[in-house]
Amino acid sequence: MSVNNSTPVIYLVDDEFAIRDSLTLLIESTGQTVRSFDSAEAFLNDYDPAHPGCLLLDVRMPLMSGHDLQNELLNRNISIPIIFISGHADIADSAKAFRAGAVDFLEKPFDNGVLLERINEAVKKDIVFREERVKKRRIQDRIDHLTAREKEVLGLIVKSHSNKESAKILNISNRTVDVHRASIMEKMQAENVAELITMVMYCEAPNKYVQEERFR
Question: What average pLDDT does this structure show over 167-174?
Answer without folding.
Answer: 95
